[in-house]
Structure formats: structure tokens, C-alpha cells
């Protein structure tokens, strides 16, 4: 495939072929991590700025390591130490990073659409590392990569995504990727956090976890996004765990080869039992490892495209 996108701002606009091309490219890059010298010269001479206006562990470190492995130069900018605190706009900050020859800007921002806003105004490649409750494309790509690696396919699998869907950028990007690749997707959680409106995206909605758990090939647990909720959407965390948590009893009802996934950070004992999170069926840390290869693929592909 001839890759033509300088930016990755979401998966909604990508075709199934484009998503598969990223996954195939990531598979080729995954080998680099097992070599003694974990570097290739693909982005030598390029500069990547990791611009994180919201907290992150996995995504920020993963993009930084991915850029190192591709031999790019990397600078990290956080909101608290940038001139955003003095009133500079996001656009002006980004234009200044571009003036400093940033070839790629990886942006995490609390506002939906922030990455697209910059992508339309800058020549630098803009990679969305999570924009509000909108999209987190590389998280969904690494989730999809992990499922494909373990199951050998995506099409025909039943993927159940459980939790706070309404405020989850991870859920939205996963829905776009999984539906395009032919998976059957069911969303599950309290009716306040999983409204039936999501059915328009081609997925099923249920508010009864026990009706779907035994039929799942993959369960993906999502954290309650307290930082994005403006009011309480369920009575208590205890009630949430009782009704929607992946408890030990529920984990026993899963198919023997079902995958247990979580994008992190985990709230142990809330959306997932601590022992279940650490069990043999959990691929949570494999997801993190695969994130490195997926982000190498995204950086490599997008940095190779310049605006005409
Ligand atoms: N999954 C995820 O985005 O984690 P971080 O917030 O730690 O980057």
C-alpha cells in the first residue's frame, strides 16, 4: 500500500486496508525489540516533540522509545513547564515547535479535536496521543494488534468492551478499528455510561454483563474516567464493581481462551479483580509491549509523507 497520510488524528477516517497496513508494518518492527541493538535508522535526522498537555505513562514513554528505536531525536514538552501556562495558545505553541524544525508532534490534549486542529494548520506530522473523550488511535491499534497476534484474526471475533464508554476515547477508537476489521462488538456498562446511541456505530449495547461474558472472545475493561465526568453516573464504586466488574466469579465464566485486556491505568478491585488482572489470560502487559511496535509503525509511515 502507498501510505499518503502525514497525520494520524483518529481511526474513524481510516479504511480497513490502512489499519491493516499499520498492523503489518508494526509486525515487521516488533522484531527490532528482541535484537541486541534495538535501533534502526529509519527516522535518523528527524525530530519528534512529545507534547503532553494531559498526564500519561504508557503512551508518552512508548512514543519516546519508539522514536529512539527509529533513531529520531526526541524532546518532551509538558503543559506545566510550557508557555501554555503564560497564556500562549495551542496553535502558537505548536507553530513555535514547527519553527524549531519539529518533523513530528505527538499531542495529548483534553480537548476533542485538538490534534485535527493542528494537523490542518501545520506542515509537521501530528499524531493524536488522545484528545479528550474523542479518539486514542494508537491505543486501539495496539489493542487490535494484540488481538490479531493472539487470535490470528479479527474478523468474526466477539469483542466485549466493558465500562465507561461515554467518556472513553479508547472505546471510540476501538469501535472504529474493530468494526472496520469485521469483529462483532458489544458495549457493556451502566445505561448512563453506555447509551443506546452507540448502536449507530454498528455495535450492540447491553447493560447486563452476565448475559455476554460467556460468549466473549475478548473482554476489554475500561477505567471509570472520573476526570471527565461532571456528575456521578452510578451510585458507588462498590455497586459498579458488583454490577460490571470482572470479578473472579465472572472470569471463571469466560471461554478458556478468552483474552482479558485493559488499556491502563488499572483501578485494581474496581473494573477488574487484582488477581484476574495478573492471571494467565490477561494480556495487559503484552498490550503495552506491542504499543512500542505500533507507534514505531505510525511514526515511520506518517513521517515519510510531506505536504505537497
Ligand atoms: N492507555 C493509556 O493511554 O495510558 P497512559 O494514560 O498512561 O498513556
Structure at a glance:
This protein has 308 residues and is an alpha/beta fold. It contains ten helices and nine strands.
Describe the structure.
The longest helix has 20 residues, at 284-303. The protein starts with 15 loop residues before the first helix and ends in a 5-residue tail after the last helix. It is globular. The protein is α/β, with parallel strands linked by helices. The mean pLDDT is 94. It has helices at 16-30, 58-69, 90-99, 114-119, 137-151, 169-180, 237-244, 248-252, 274-277, 284-303, and strands spanning 47-52, 73-78, 104-109, 125-131, 158-162, 184-188, 204-206, 218-221, 259-261.
Sequence-ordered SSE layout with sheet pairings:
Blueprint: H1 16-30, E1 47-52, H2 58-69, E2 73-78, H3 90-99, E3 104-109, H4 114-119, E4 125-131, H5 137-151, E5 158-162, H6 169-180, E6 184-188, E7 204-206, E8 218-221, H7 237-244, H8 248-252, E9 259-261, H9 274-277, H10 284-303
Parallel strand pairs: 1-2, 1-3, 3-4, 5-6, 5-8, 6-7, 8-9
Helix pairs in contact: 1-5, 1-10, 2-10, 5-6, 5-10
The protein binds phosphoric acid mono(formamide)ester (CP).
Phosphoric acid mono(formamide)ester (CP) is lined by residues 56-59, 130, 139, 263-265.
Q: What key attributes describe this structure?
A:
308 residues; five-stranded parallel β-sheet; 10 helices; globular; binds phosphoric acid mono(formamide)ester
